[in-house]
Amino acid sequence: MLYASQSAQPVLGYGYQENIGRKAFELIHPDDLAATQAFLRQVAERPGEPQRTEVRARHKNGSWRDLEAVAVNRLAEPAIGAIVVTYHDVTERRRADRIQRATYRISEAAHRSETLQELFRAIHEIVGELMPANNFYIALYDPETDTISFPYFVDEYDSDFPPKHPGKGLTEYVLRTGAPLLVTPEVHRELEQRGYVELIGAPSIDWL
Question: How far is Cα 27 from Cα 29, in angstroms, rounded to an integer?
Fold first, then answer.
C-alpha cells in the first residue's frame, strides 16, 4: 500500500502510518482471498476501467467488516502509477439483508413444516447461519399455568430442562424485562451481584 487517505481510517481503524507499506491481502478474509486476487488480476487487465466488488476485511479490533470497493488500474499514469481502490463499509446493510432473508426463510418454514419439531429444527439451522448456535433452545411461557417449557433444546453440556415455574434464570429475566439481551460473563456476574439472576446449567461464554 503506497498511500491511504485519512478518511479511510474510520472504516478499518488503522491510521495512515499503519497502512503505508502494508500488503492489502493481509486484511482480507481467508475465504475471500482467491476471489480478491482474481478481481485484481481483472483490474490489471483493464486499465482505466472501474471494477466493483465486495470483500470482507479485518478491522483493527479483530472484527470482520463488509466492504464495497471500486478499483481502477492507473499504473500507466506517471503521476499515480498504482491501482487506486476506494471502499466504504456496508457491514450494517449486509447484516440487515441477512436478517431479512432469515426472517423470510423462517416464515417459509412455518408454512412448510408439518410438525413443531420440524419448524424448530429449521429455525435452529437458519439462526446457525447468522451466528454460532451450537447450543440453542426455544422456551414457551404459559401464563395460565405460570410455567416455562422447553419444546426444543439442543446443548453440548446440559440435558433437557423439564417445564418449571419461573425462577431467576436468564430466560425469566428476558420475560420480565421484555427486552433482547446479550450476556457476556461480565454481564452475567453483574446481574448475579444485583440479585436479578442465578446461574442455571453450565456457564456460557455468551448468551443471547
Answer: 7
**Tens digit of each residue's pLDDT (9 = 90 or more) over 118-168:** 999 999 999 998 888 899 999 999 999 999 999 999 988 888 788 999 989
Homologous superfamily of the 6-89 domain (CATH): PAS domain (3.30.450.20)
Domain residue extents for the chain: 6-89, 90-131, 134-208
pTM of the model: 0.68
